[in-house]
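We now fix the convention by which a protein and its fold are recorded. The integers have meaning only within a learned vocabulary of local backbone shapes. A record is reproduced here so that you can trace the correspondence yourselves:
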Amino acid sequence: MITIYGMRASGNCYKLQLLLDQLGHAYRWVDIDSAHGETRTAAYLAKNPNGKVPLLELEDGRRLAESDAILCYLAEGTAWLPDDRWLRAQTLQWLFFEQYSHEPCIAVARFIRGWLPPDHPRQAEVPVLLQRGVQVLAVMEQHLTGREWFVGERYGIADIALYAYTHCAGDGGFDLSVFPNIRAWLARVQAQPGHTPMQH
């Protein structure tokens, strides 16, 4: 059985839980509280020297880090990752967008507002994160005009990757009411068979 080391309230970890649950794939979950230093212990760093979650561990001991790389591995050979070369490249495009444009605004604002005290110096970053995050959400809103899913005609890991932090963007101070296409897409994701909510 595969093992996932992760923090359930993390969107990057939730992606894997959601995909695995929808695939009906058995897995073992090991809770690692990255917010309180559990990824910096010697034991965990021996598994992932980068000291982050999530981490996939196979039965034979091989390990894979980085949430979207793990999504690709788990979805290989399934309907969640297209075989078509162009659609696969578009999937990767949205995975990179999620990590380099979306996550640094949406997820970081959520972390600062939800995990740091009100007087923490990083609270000063939130206004800029909100401004940049709205621009990112606008890109998604535009792309979803006339589309149900981010890539092709079916739900896939591009949707899962973007859903993970978008559906809880309100925790970071983002107002999704001004993005009707995104809200409709979120509802479609939540209606997918096997959908399970993020655990906090």
